[in-house]
Amino acid sequence: MSEPFDDGGVLARLREQAEQLAQQRQPVSPPQSNEDVMKQLHELEVRRIELEMQSAALAELEQLKNEFESSRDHYAQLYEQAPVSYFSLARENIITRVNVAACSLLRRDKTQLLGRRFEQFIAPQAQGGFRYFLDAVFSSGARQVLETQLFEGVAGRMVRIEANFDAASATARMLVTDLGDEHARESALRRAFVILDSIREGVLVTDSDNRIISVNPAFTAITGYQAEEAIGRDPSFLGGGTHLPHFYEAMWRSLHRDGSWYGELVNRRKNGERFVESLSITPMHSQDGTISHFVGVFSDITERKLAEADLRELHRELDQRVIERTTELLRANQHLQLEVHQRERAQEALRDAERFFHATIDSLTDRVLVLDQSGSVLHANQACLAFVGQMPRALQYLDFCETDPRWQRSAGRELAAGIRSVIAGSADTFALEYEFATRAGPRWSQARISRFLGEGPLRVVVAHTDITERKLMDGALRQSHAQLRQLALHLETAKEDERKRISRDIHDELGQNLLALRIDISMLSARTEGSHPRLHRRVGAVLSNVDTTIKSVRGIMNELRPMALDLGLQAAIEWQVGDFRKRSGVACRLLIRDEALFSAIGSQAEIVLFRIVQEALSNVMRHAQASQVEIELSSDACAVYVSISDNGIGITPQQQRKKQCFGLIGIAERLTALGGHFEVGMPASGAGCRLALQIPLQGAGRPA
Predict the structure, then answer these.
(1) For residue 87, how many other CB atoms are within 10 A of its CB?
(2) Which residues pair with 678 in a beta bridge?
(3) Are the C-beta atoms of 670 and 492 separated by less than 8 Å?
(4) Pick from 553, 542, 681, 669: which is nearest to 612 by CA?
(5) Phi and psi for 666 in degrees, rounded to 5?
(6) Is the separation of the CB atoms in 174 and 90 below 8 Å?
(7) pLDDT (tens digit, 9 = 90+) per residue, 435-475?
(8) What is the CA radius of gyration of the chain?
(9) Pairing with 350, which of 119, 134, 204, 394 sits 20 to 30 Å away (CA)?
(10) Number of Cβ within a 10 Å radius of residue 430
(11) Residue 255's closest CA among 203, 201, 296?
(12) Helix axis angle, 662-673 relative to 468-505, nearest 10°?
């Protein structure tokens, strides 16, 4: 058998092209013009693409050849081991090829069958019919079917012979089926129906008038029509008008002329969906030679057709891409010379940029180092050299950080760990403030480490900024803030003392005088009640004014320093809550978790807490528009906690940052002087404002 794929011509062409390319290679000649170089590059690129395409085609041919050989071997194995009997007969009725099942049917070895006439195994009374049958196969070339009886010495059984003509080998190929007795025929028929029900190809059987009489389950699975919907109908109802009438006329002409028909049709499923099927039609003949039935076997090849269309589109796109790639290469060749000049200018600009970079970092007052991936110094500017002195060329900066004793408080090891994290990529940047001992004394610096995100090898930039002056200024500023807090605390204390003194003076002097004046006016009112009615009314008005004045004086004294403070913070806050209820009409609730907390609060903290509560209630009355206020006091071993909540309109962050918000500023200053702090938020109810205070107790550390 000749090979279907002959890749010798392809290999010869590839070898010839490779030899031509080798012959075209010339020794290195003097420099050519850029245009010649461009043309040669283009030709080489085009030839490279052609070789790649030819190599791909050769690989595809090799794959197809391997698949064909595998299929051929598989076919030969199937032929030999098939469960049915296969014979190949020459025109002289000589057996040329048989399989194992055929040898078993005739009860002969293959060597005893090859070269003998098949006719001698036919019963004598049926040999004439067999010769006529075989002549019809060779003369018409159409498929023929014959049921006959074997010779009694062989088996004496009925067999069914299906034969067709193979023009390639000029032989008649026969499929011989042992029909056996009546019981065996029925068993064979049942097995045939089982096989038809289990195969995946659709099978339909029509009578001589082309009316469907039987279908298998695969027919229903492919078309969607049940057996009862198809039986009795012409198979053309599946077409749905997809093919013209002359197509079916040509199909029937070919079927009657050749004895079978094979082709592809486009039909419709029951749901209206179109599908492509591969159909083969074979006529079945009766004993008198007339056509009794037609058997059609078809399979759904829609997916295969779609895949073939996609493959054709892929080949078209590949050709288009080759054309586009060639066009791109032509355009690239036109710009190649320009790119060469631009690259030269870019390299010169890069060298200028490197010189500018080194000059720039050398002019910086900060100390800048560039490290490689191992932590070795690649470049250090002048400020760095002036700080540490002459630096060896291959200095390992990480070892310097970990071993030099001038780093204070293990700052060098911490800096080395930060550099390693940046090199490893676990951190993009790292910053550290440290103290370093120099000949002029300890100096504070800030180190900033970052990765250089370039295309080349990893580079790490370490920049050191001297912050000694800033540290000194920060210390001075903190000391100034502490002094200001002490001054504010002193002023608050002095203010409270002055309020206390003024309140006592008003109580002692003005209060006593007003009380004596009221006693006198009361006595005058009693004397004039009966004798001078008009004077009595005038005295009553004066007495009322004196009472109003006494109330005003009491209010002034309470504003300056309420007398309830002398009874303790708890009594003062309770008095403040009661006074707030009277003046505002707002419900106010005081909740004390532990009354023992008042014994742990110092005198200064008592005044601060009272004033804060007073300021908070004043803000609620003026701004909150609340209907309910709750004050809660609690403590632990470290601090006293105060919470003042209302259900009013609340306060926004913008309002808290207003410059005129002196109430909150005063509260913050009072708490800062005592080491406490406060937060403004929202209650758990979700509406209103909540002021949370925290004041550390004397002798306890600041709470976490």
Answers:
(1) 23
(2) 693
(3) yes
(4) 669
(5) -65, -40
(6) no
(7) 888 887 888 888 898 887 666 678 888 888 888 888 888 88
(8) 56
(9) 394
(10) 19
(11) 296
(12) 100
